[in-house]
Amino acid sequence: FFVVLVVLILFSCAFSIHANTLSSTESLTISRNLTIVSPGKIFELGFFKPSTRPRWYLGIWYKKIPERTYVWVANRDTPLSNSVGTLKISDGNLVILDHSNIPIWSTNTKGDVRSPIVAELLDTGNLVIRYFNNNSQEFLWQSFDFPTDTLLPEMKLGWDRKTGLNRFLRSYKSSNDPTSGSFSYKLETGVYSEFFMLAKNSPVYRTGPWNGIQFIGMPEMRKSDYVVYNFTENNEEVSFTFLMTSQNTYSRLKLSDKGEFERFTWIPTSSQWSLSWSSPKDQCDVYDLCGPYSYCDINTSPICHCIQGFEPKFPEWKLIDAAGGCVRRTPLNCGKDRFLPLKQMKLPDTKTVIVDRKIGMKDCKKRCLT
């Protein structure tokens, strides 16, 4: 009886870590190859090695999808250099320890944590730290606040105005290297908030402002029967998120290492990810490609053109080097100047615009000319 009892206890301890929580008495190690699985077996947390190089990471991936797809990486810029690593709870934080028992990554939460805490992997793909006896949404820390290159349903991108936290995407360095890459996808707030894709610190793409349904520069973000996009702007936050109307449909937004913002949907019948749309959609979608006072037409060659009343600043324009943009043919004459309507155009950058909702088009024109 005693022998059987001991065996049962050991069996229970070995498999308890396969639940969706990690307590302060438990740990994950690379050598034991154990993972944490969300309650509905949708997501899985564990250590992984994405290439032949001896670099190990802690990450989250889809549990049921045969094509291993990572949606979050904890220590993307501080990988373990060998197959000795441990994830545990220490002093109220999740920490990753290397072979010398030295922390190489931590959640770095502040404050006095007095009650027992647990780490939990939710069916949304959110890894959270909470008090042991509190199952509410009041988390001490959550991975959704620190995304890598992927936006999942219910995850937010943008600013938390209460804490000052800016949630943004950062691309991989390469397809199998989760190290922080060159591209980021950030929300810029102003008169009109919009997302910018940056290559290092230079803008290469912008979405345009939100019009209540989609970002005006992203016609591909159209209404769908199974996905709902949402943009919130109030005193507490400025954020973008999306929801799936069917819990059985897996979809994600990803910033690729090549600077493409993409939406993928999993197709079970073909067992592969289907690309729904990608931005920038063509060369004309690139930020400031043709320079000031110009427009871009992908169906012409060259693709850059001056607006009526303007001419190329430099002769290189015809050689498809349009960086200088266009200049006025004649100086302004404020007594005879008028406005030229431009249809089916993506609006220019709105960082410096002035908005007055109390006046109409006629008064707006008058104000611009004075």
Automatic annotation (TrEMBL):
Transmembrane stretches in the record are none
Q: What Pfam families would the database entry show?
A: B_lectin, PAN_2, S_locus_glycop
The entry's keywords: ATP-binding, Cell membrane, Disulfide bond, EGF-like domain, Glycoprotein, Kinase, Lectin, Membrane, Nucleotide-binding, Receptor, Serine/threonine-protein kinase, Signal, Transferase, Transmembrane, Transmembrane helix
One of the entry's Gene Ontology molecular-function terms is:
ATP binding
Topology of the protein relative to the lipid bilayer: Single-pass type I membrane protein
Q: Where in the cell is it found?
A: Cell membrane
Q: Which GO terms describe its biological process?
A: recognition of pollen
The Bulb-type lectin domain extends over 21-142
Is Ribosomal protein tagged as a keyword? no
- Renumbered to this chain, the signal peptide range is 1-19
* PANTHER family reported in the protein's UniProt record: BULB-TYPE LECTIN DOMAIN-CONTAINING PROTEIN, INACTIVE G-TYPE LECTIN S-RECEPTOR-LIKE SERINE_THREONINE-PROTEIN KINASE SRK-RELATED
Decide whether keyword Acetylation is in the record: no
The cross-references to Gene3D superfamilies, in alphabetical order and at most eight, read: Bulb-type lectin domain
A GO-annotated cellular component: plasma membrane
Where is it chiefly localized? membrane
CDD domains noted in UniProt: B_lectin
**At the top level of its lineage, which domain of life is listed?**
Eukaryota
- Quote the protein name from its UniProt record: S-receptor kinase
